[in-house]
Amino acid sequence: MGIIGDEIRIKWTESVMGKVLVIDDAIIQRAQLKSMVLAAGHEAIEAGDGEEGLEMALKHRDDLSMIFCDFNMPVLDGLSLCTKLYEDEQFPSIPIFMITTETSQDLKELGKKVGIKGWIIKPVQPEVIEQLIRQFI
Predict the structure, then answer these.
(1) What is d(CA 120, CA 134) in angstroms, rounded to the nearest whole number?
(2) Are 110 and 82 in contact (CB under 8 A)?
(3) Whole-angstrom Cα distance, residue 82 to residue 97?
(4) Radius of gyration for the alpha carbons in the chain, expressed in angstroms and rounded
(5) Tens of pLDDT along 97-134?
(6) ∠ CA(44), CA(18), CA(57), 5° rounding?
(7) Contact 64, 19 (CB under 8 A)
(8) Cys bridge to 44: 26, 37, 39, 69, which one at CB 3.0-4.6 A?
(9) Where are the beta strands (DSSP E) in the chain?
(10) Which of 9-18, 40-49, 118-127 bottoms out in mean pLDDT, i.e. has the lowest?
(11) What is the pLDDT of residues 69-91, one digit of tens each?
């Protein structure tokens, strides 16, 4: 009987836990976001620039629940990364949230047109990340 209980608990835990990709070139910001995701009870994977983020998103497309992405990054900026992901017909519609210091309304509107679900201004508050995770995973 203990085995059945353990099997049920394992299945329930696996179905609740999501995988979140954190993309940011600033290692401290990336570590803070990763910590917030882990504190919310989910798995966090990370990338240090837009190109690496694109590779990670495509590699994990089948089990990725959410993406937090910095706007200003080397190699490939966040908006370009999101555009490439949402243009890929094989990429599922997982919510992407832009995390940035950019406050321009024009950029926010452009992000919305691309498909970005939300625009979070730095510094990021843990409560905001927790609320988004609860709402979208």
Answers:
(1) 16
(2) no
(3) 10
(4) 16
(5) 999 999 999 999 999 999 999 999 999 999 999 999 99
(6) 60
(7) yes
(8) 37
(9) 19-23, 43-47, 66-70, 96-100, 118-121
(10) 9-18
(11) 999 999 999 999 999 998 888 77
Outline where 40-88 has alpha helix (H). 50-59, 78-87
| Biggest CA pair distance of the chain | 59
Q: How far is CA 68 from the centre of its chain?
A: 3
Q: At 88, which amino acid appears?
A: D
pLDDT for 93: 83
Q: Which amino acid type is present at position 94? A: I
State pTM to two decimals.
0.86
pLDDT of residue 68: 98
Q: Which domains does the chain have, with CATH numbers?
A: 18-136 (3.40.50.2300)
CA contacts within 13 A on the Cβ side of 106: 0
> In this structure, what token pair is assigned to residue 37?
């995701």
pLDDT band at 16 (very low <50, low <70, confident <90, very high): low
Task: Give the model's pLDDT for residue 59.
Answer: 96
Q: How many C-beta atoms lie closer than 10 Å to residue 122's C-beta? A: 15
